[in-house]
UniProtKB/TrEMBL annotation:
This is Extracellular solute-binding protein. It comes from the Bacteria. The keyword Signal applies. Belongs to the bacterial solute-binding protein 1 family. GO terms for molecular function: maltose binding. PANTHER family: MALTOSE-BINDING PERIPLASMIC PROTEIN, MALTOSE_MALTODEXTRIN-BINDING PERIPLASMIC PROTEIN. GO terms for cellular component: ATP-binding cassette (ABC) transporter complex, substrate-binding subunit-containing. Pfam families: SBP_bac_8. Keywords: Signal, Transport. The keyword Transport applies. One of its GO terms (biological process) is maltodextrin transmembrane transport. Gene3D superfamilies: Periplasmic binding protein-like II (3.40.190.10).
């Protein structure tokens, strides 16, 4: 989620420290990592534990539940509950501190204990171990793709949407639903994007407006290839981005890589069409592994690529860094990830939701109050300032007017909650292995394997994993 440090850019006050202002001593690799280090944790859904902890920081923010009917715990429960536990990833730790400060001030005598894990996988392991040991868990962060685990194995409680502020964008709620129940409230939401070097495109005679479809992207790559000088396109495949591209492309034509009954749908002709586009992209040169440590390094610093796939969460940091290079920089633009021909924008969402795991009623009331406090407009706005997620609150979006003036390229992503598609949530004890298995097969297609054969293998592997 967001990294929130007092005095840094993000959650409270009006400090103006830059999200990413690399010093001259910061290495190119470290700078590139800082541009998109949140990609794995909040975008494609992968594991970024091996990356340097250089996430953008954020100002502190006003957390609270003022004016939210029903979100405040009853006086009896407030007097009874003396301890709340919060489980989050390291990138969320400082955000959680805002809720902790609010709750402990609003309820004297209450202690909010914050538990951190480096990534979603480690977080699930810690929660499962603590549950088995009988330890209390009240609020936890859940990646969208593992919400079924929180609902069915960790006992996440339903959170009625009427407990939220009227300004919360209801279009995002579907991303936190499991079997029709609101298990989590989306807090930070991302989507895949395509960033381009306008200087290179113009030199090659490419109009950026043609990059909205895969057909247009491939036509552009041919022109850029003919012009020479740089690799036309790089779609980094690591941190499970490869399967994120695949599912987003298929979704643009109304086809999901997972059937309604939870079984895989990877041998569908539209999914194969998506894999064929990705395979063609792979033929234009080596695709980066890590979006954070390689993809933006090659694009933004080394200027080796004309177009690069990324998450919307890396845009503000990336654009700011490129601009701050002055004469050594270039004109960069951004578009939503392209659709298949005839498709429309329905990207698969990345990101996370806040869940309540309390079993006791009073603990649940206090946990719910903590969740709602972390969705305060100022908290949401600060998070977007630091890491350019889609704003889940309309009041926060209005508060971000100056941010969107600084980054007009990001205006196009506002209000997209209704068009997003929920991430596949794979069943079975080994369902969590499916995203990486799919990524592996997409990577095979991008390095020479027949795309249809790779998708048949992906179908077989996903079937095996979800049946266990």
């Amino acid at each position: 989620m967001i990294r929130i440090v007092a005095g840094a850019r993000g959650l409270r006050g009006r400090e103006t420290r830059s999200l990413l202002r690399p010093t001259r001593s910061l290495s190119a690799l470290a700078a590139a990592t800082a541009l998109a280090v949140t990609a794995a944790a909040c975008g494609g859904g992968g594991d970024s534990a091996d990356q340097p902890n250089l996430q953008p920081t954020a100002r502190t923010a006003e957390a609270g539940v003022a004016g939210v009917n029903g979100a405040t715990a009853s006086p009896e429960c407030a007097a009874k509950v003396k301890n709340l536990t919060f489980y989050g990833i390291t990138a969320l730790s400082d955000a959680a501190k805002n809720g902790k400060a609010y709750m402990e001030k609003a309820h004297p005598g209450l202690t909010v204990t914050l538990n951190e894990a480096p990534n979603y996988v480690a977080l699930l392991q810690q929660l499962s171990a603590d549950k088995a040991a009988g330890k209390q868990a009240d609020v936890a962060v859940a990646g969208f793709d593992v919400l079924p685990v929180f609902a069915k194995q960790l006992g996440a409680r339903e959170l009625p949407a009427n407990l939220l502020r009227s300004t919360y964008d209801q279009g995002f709620l579907k991303l936190g639903q499991i079997d029709g129940k609101q298990i989590g409230i989306p807090a930070q939401v991302s989507m895949p994007v395509l960033i381009y070097n306008l200087d290179v495109l113009e030199k090659a005679g490419v109009d950026p407006k043609t990059l909205t479809t895969t057909t247009g992207v491939l036509a552009a790559t041919e022109k850029i290839k003919a012009a020479g000088g740089v690799q036309p396109i790089d779609l980094p495949t690591g941190e499970q981005f490869a399967q994120w591209y695949l599912s987003t492309l298929a979704s643009s034509k109304g086809v999901q890589i997972q059937n309604a009954d939870g079984t895989p749908n990877l041998d569908d002709p539209t999914v194969i069409e998506a894999a064929q586009f990705l395979a063609k992209v792979g033929s234009y040169g080596p695709q980066s592994d890590s979006p954070s440590a390689n993809g933006l390094l090659r694009f933004g610093i080394q200027k080796q690529t004309a177009m690069v796939g990324a998450t919307v969460a890396s845009l503000a940091a990336g654009l700011r860094y490129i601009r701050e290079q002055g004469a050594n920089g270039f004109r960069a633009g951004v578009l939503p990830f392209p659709t298949l021909p005839g498709g429309t924008q329905h990207p698969v969402a990345g990101g996370n939701a806040l869940t309540v795991l309390s079993t006791d009623d009073c603990q649940r009331q206090m946990a719910t109050e903590l969740v709602v406090s972390l969705l305060a407009p100022d908290v949401v706005a600060a998070g977007v300032e630091a890491v350019s997620y889609l704003p889940v609150d309309t009041a926060a979006a209005e508060q971000l007017a100056s941010f969107y003036q600084e980054f007009p390229e990001l205006e196009q992503f506002k209000g997209l909650g209704g068009s997003l598609v929920a991430a596949p949530a794979w069943p079975g004890s080994r369902g969590g292995e499916v995203p990486q298995a799919l990524t592996d097969q997409v990577m095979r297609a991008m390095t020479g394997t027949d795309p249809a054969a790779a998708m048949r293998e992906a179908q077989a592997k996903a079937t095996e994993l979800t049946a266990s």
